[in-house]
Amino acid sequence: MDMVTSGTAILTLVAGIGVFLIACTMMSTNLESICSNRLKKLFSKASDKKLLGVGIGALGTAAIQSSGAMTVLVIGFVNAGIMSLTLAAAIIYGANIGTTITAQIVAFGMMGGDTISLTVIFAALTGIGAFMSVFAKKDSMKKWGGILAGFGMLFVGLSMMSGSMESFAQMDEVKNFLASIENLVLLVLIGALLTAIIQSSSVMTSVAITMLVAGLIDLEQGIYLTLGSNIGSCIVSILAGMSSGLNAKRTALMHLTFNVIGVILFVSAGYIMDFASGGTFTYANIFSSLFPDVPQTQLAMFHTVFNVITVIIMLPLTSKLVSFVCKVIPDKGEPADKHAPHLYYINDYMLKTPPIAVLEVKNEIMNMAKIAMANVTEACYIVRTLDFTDIEKFRANEKELNYLKKNITKFLVKLSNLQLIDKDNAYVSAAFRTVTDLERVGDYAENIVEYAERLQAIEEGFSDYAKQEIIEVRNLIQQLYELIMKAYADVDKDTLKEAMKIENQIDDLTDRMAEEHIKRLNDGTCKPDVGAEYLSLASDTERIADHFVNVGKVIRDYA
Q1: d(CA 555, CA 490)
Q2: Cα(404)–Cα(446) distance, rounded to whole angstroms?
Q3: Cα-flanking dihedrals φ and ψ of residue 117, to 5°?
Q4: How far is CA 140 from CA 60, 132, 473, in A?
Q5: Contacts of 372 (CB under 8 A, 6+ apart)
Q6: Residue from 411, 71, 361 nearest 239 by CA
Q7: Mean pLDDT throughout 223-246?
Q8: Rounded to whole angstroms, how far apart are CA atoms 9 and 153?
Q9: How far apart are CA 65 and CA 25, in angstroms?
Q10: Cα–Cα distance for residue pair 507/295, rounded to 1 Å
Q11: DSSP codes joined into one string, 511-551
Q12: Residue 131, Cβ neighbours under 10 Å: how many?
């Protein structure tokens, strides 16, 4: 084969892999948009039920066509402290099973014999999906168009890869080189390395299938390349865990350990079977006899069987796996200042899966609101009692609010530059205002503490009447906060209306606080110095309520 033909084959292979990767991303992004909220609800129901976790991981990964996205979502939940390591392990087990669906789809698409290839039929869905994406008016139809187009592009990429493999199959140099790789461990390492580079075990397995069908490699080689791809796929969770907290790192290590153990077990069993039978009883012989004349199905089915058997073996050992990763990454590995400001839900690696990143931004903002409300409650307590016992916790919270405002905003800037659906775009735009509102809540709480410090300095305090009014306004702000958070979390306009009624009550109460306090000043019950602080406090509590209401009002932008 001349240089031009071989060069064309290489370029076609690169193009095919590129199209396949873009197709996976298109499908994953659109499917995540549709399924992510449902997945989160399933996570919350799973608790520590391992079998249910495996099922959720398998179905969820099969649905969104990305074990990487599923792993990032799990790491985010673990990092936030709302998912145990045991459940995380179970879901990762299931994700390994779910990710094999891509190989099954590819194997099915390569069938067709002398009739029109299913690859061509499925590839035609690219055009149908593209028309839907371009001309559909409803956002949901655009998403489904993106899913169809992505699904079709899988087979466009597959067709290009298959064509290049057929060209390579005619090159004696390539065939001789691949045939010379007989060391099974070396094949595992090659599979792991290539998968780590392209960050997709689905692509690596699909390339192996096309090589097998073209006759470039035999089934045994394809099996061991596929085993290696399972180790290489862990690069996604490793990268996500590196930039997160202690338990996130443990989750990434669990994923790697699980896959490495599975590969070691299967490689060892393969060597034993081969040695004991004199080379007549191998994985290739088993799957060739089970699925004769369909090499693509033989490799796809091995991939599924491998993951299922590994899960069956590891599921009863989950507690030992959790103990192992906790010993390897012990608690003492936490930073010396574990209370230092940090992001709880988001990190830059989540930008690889924008729909999930949007969901996690919402969790981060709700956590920020919780911290802000905690400081409002503490500020009202301090100004009533002049008890500064927990002032350091208050200061730490204020520092954290400033940190969160700055870093969530940075994340939102990056997220806004990605391709998002209309609803997510509207949410991100509104989120910029929301984090500013919550930071302002913290600032007003800080003002109230400063009033307490000035009162302490002049050895004065509020009257019992004033203290009772502070308790009333604090309770109303607490009610307002709870309703606003419910409206914000559920995008519930009815709950927002209830919150607005509470805000009106707060406005009335703060007006009354000012009026009553002026009366107390006139009759000598309160002193002028104290009165100035109290009037400022009444104004600040009203503004706190306004900023919380602003947080709720943003749902109108994307509801």
Answers
A1: 9
A2: 16
A3: -65, 140
A4: 19, 10, 43
A5: 401, 438, 439, 441, 442, 445
A6: 71
A7: 80
A8: 19
A9: 9
A10: 74
A11: HHHHHHHHHHHHTTSS-HHHHHHHHHHHHHHHHHHHHHHHH
A12: 13
pLDDT digits (tens, 9 = 90+) for 479-517: 999 999 999 998 999 999 999 999 999 999 998 888 876
The pLDDT value given to residue 43: 63
The answer, yes or no, to whether residue 332 has pLDDT greater than 70, is no
- The DSSP line for 226-262 is HHHHHHHTTHHHHHHHHTS-HHHHHHHHHHHHHHHHH
Question: Is residue 476 within 8 Å of residue 418, measured between CB atoms?
Answer: no
Measured distance CA(51)–CA(543) in Å, rounded: 49
The answer to whether 544 and 445 are in contact (CB under 8 A) is yes
pTM of the model as a whole: 0.67
**Tell me, what amino acid is at 523?**
D
Q: Which residue has the tokens 């559920």?
A: 490
Q: Which amino acid is at 291?
A: F
pLDDT tens readout for residues 39-95: 666 665 665 678 888 888 888 777 666 677 677 778 767 766 667 888 889 989 998
CB 227 within 8 A of CB 191: yes
The H-assigned helical ranges of 47-124 are: 50-64, 67-79, 85-98, 101-109, 118-123
Angle formed by the axes of helices 3-46 and 354-385, nearest 10°: 40
Whole-angstrom Cα distance, residue 377 to residue 452? Answer: 14
- Confirm if 167 and 1 have CB atoms less than 8 A apart: yes
Sequence length of the chain is 559
pLDDT band at 303 (very low <50, low <70, confident <90, very high): very high
Other CB atoms within 10 A of residue 529 CB:
11
Three-class SS of 280-320: CCCHHHHHHHHCCCCHHHHHHHHHHHHHHHHHHHHHHHHHH
